[in-house]
Specification:
single chain, alpha+beta, two-stranded antiparallel sheet, about 25% strand
């Protein structure tokens, strides 16, 4: 199964497996597992680009994990998805008071006078 997020390298359409973040103050490029959410100042990379990553001269590359592999959904992910689909398919019932029956008590042209049962008027 492909990742929803793709490699941010130009002309690469492979699924992302790692996230690259630059720490400018330390002149460090940190390459770690794919982040849960895409961040504006980080870059998602496929396995090929993660393995071939080099940093600018004078910078250090910190690899938080040695191997990056495309992973599919876990059993927990599939169960959560199935539960969400079941919940979305359930009919919705809006709680609220039952409407009172109404009775017509008068008429003036196109207007009608209505009274709910159990009320005086």
């Amino acid at each position: 199964m492909r990742s929803v997020r793709q490699c941010t390298r130009t002309a690469c359409d492979s699924g992302a497996v790692a996230t690259l973040t630059y720490v400018y103050s330390d002149q460090t490029a940190v390459l770690g597992p794919l982040a849960n959410h895409a961040e504006p100042h980080s870059y998602d990379l496929c396995a090929e680009h993660a393995e071939r990553l080099t940093a600018p001269r004078g910078w250090e590359v910190v690899r938080l994990t040695p191997d990056f592999e495309q992973s599919g959904p876990s059993p927990d992910d599939l169960l959560a998805l199935a539960d969400a689909v079941r919940e979305a398919g359930r009919p919705r019932r809006q709680p609220g008071p039952e409407p009172l029956p109404v009775a017509e008590v008068g008429r003036r042209g196109h207007l009608r006078v209505l009274r709910g049962e159990g009320r005086q008027g």
